[in-house]
Specification:
Length: 191
Amino acid sequence: DVWDAVDWALNASRSPYPNAHETAEIINLSLGWSTVSGYSDSAKFFDAVADDLLVMVVNSAGNQGITGITKPGEMYNGLTVANMDNRNTPQRSDDVWKDSSSVGPLPDNRKKPDVIAPGTAITTARRDWQETGNQFGTWTYFPGGSIPFTGTSFAAPHVTGAIALLYDYLSTWPKTLKAVLINTADDWGVQ
């Protein structure tokens, strides 16, 4: 359950977690709950985590295309991340917005997502499984330790890594970290 995982991350250094020594400084989420229709309880919760506990929250925008951002992507204090295809080249000129990536604006006309990062054909760890009928199609097992996947869930960790670097060398304040990334990113003109 997501709330148990967040509770553990925020309270790991306190009992009943005797083997953990520090609490989370950054939380990376890939929840994909229903499309935003207002300010959800989950967004309020993660806004409070960022504002009151000074823990940066990075959330994947969802893979709903123009249908809209998924919850809790409407949060004010965290970062919501979209997916772009960098075509596996070093040039930025051929990067494209992945059309399956959720896009705003939100019902209150705020622009979302906040930033975009590579999330297409990202090589990730795999496990032995087979599943059908989900948004990624049919998964089958192939020998080997990795597999490429696509989606905002694979873009958000890139931003979480950038936040970790900034956290160590710039600031521990989530709003500062968010402002730095948004204000130094290229403007793709997408709402």
